[in-house]
Structure formats: structure tokens, C-alpha cells
Amino acid sequence: MSLNLQGNPMNIRSSFSTIAARSALALGLAFGVALGAGVTAFASGSDMAARHHAAPMTSQDLASHVAEFLPHLYTQLGVSDAQKAQLDPIVNQAVADVGEIHAQMGNLHTQALDLFAQATVDRGAIETLRAAHLAGMDQASRRIAQLIGDVADVLTPAQRQALAAHIAQMHAAAPAQG
Predict the structure, then answer these.
(1) 146 closest CA partner among 6, 31, 22
(2) Exposure of 14 by Cβ count < 10 A (0-12 exposed, 13-18 middle, 19+ buried)?
(3) Which of 14, 4, 8, 1 is nearest to 109 (CA)?
(4) Helix and strand tally (H, E) in the chain?
(5) What is the pLDDT of residue 177?
(6) How many domains does the chain have?
(7) Share of the chain residues as helix, strand and coil, in percent rounded to the nearest 5
(8) Mean predicted confidence (pLDDT) in 137-144
(9) 178 falls within a domain
(10) DSSP labels for 136-157?
(11) pLDDT of residue 170
């Protein structure tokens, strides 16, 4: 993803929000619970998407969204009580972990804006910040990959196929971001 500062230096923050939203959706989607919104959430039709564009999504916003749509997803997928008992802690821990990563990375955007606004631009500091951002995104990506594998271990092949179809449908219906 390229960094476009033309016209609005706050695009750094919106770019992160977009990445965070996609990661969360993958997280949400990664489970059929969070599996739907990847924090992006918002295929459920709630007003979360509108709030997300007005301000960055917080860890609490993500946790609330997952708690709201997870029961619906469980019903749609035909998840048993035994599966719910396994999935709830897996998903909740992943949401907490990704939320923590998101919070840690939020400060990077403030730092980037501070660097950008300086009279003299420190390219070394920008590179250090870029590397920190990539490390955070890699950490989030690894956690989401773990979530996907953990959820796959609990769901049946038919449930995984239904979840994949649900996610594909949500992606097709979601407005393009970029």
C-alpha cells in the first residue's frame, strides 16, 4: 500500500485505519465470527462502518462488534454448543491480541505526522518508523493466520466452506477501499 499525502497529511491515519480494518475483518472473518468484518465489519449492516470512517476503530469497538455478530454467525454456520465453547476463547483472545497490536501501532502514525511536519525531514527516522510499522503489520498478520488455523481446527469442512462463501459474499458486497 502506498502512502499518499497529497492534499491531506491525515491520510497516514486513514491508511492505517484501512489496514487495521482489513486486518480485523480478516480476524473477524478469520473466524466466521470475526470473519465477517475483518473489522471491516460491517457486513452485518450495523453502523460500525460509518463510525469507523469518522474515527479510527478502537480495540473496544472491535470487541463489541465481534460480540454482536458472532452469535449470528454461529447460527448461520450451525455451530454446536461444544464448538462455541472452543471458539469463543479462541476468537476473544485473537480480538484482544490484534487490538493490542493496533493500539501499539496507533502511535506510529502520530510519530509519522510529527516527522513530516518538521522543518528538516529525518529520512533515517522515517525509515525506522516504516520498519516498525511493517513489524507491527507482520505481527498482526501472523496472529490472524494463527486464528484462521485455530478456527479451522474446530469447524467442520462444511462449516468452513459455508464461512468461506459468507466471507466471499461480504467482500463482493463491500465498497472498494483504497
Answers:
(1) 31
(2) middle
(3) 14
(4) 6, 0
(5) 59
(6) 1
(7) 75, 0, 25
(8) 94
(9) no
(10) HHHHHHHHHHHHHHHHHHHS-H
(11) 85
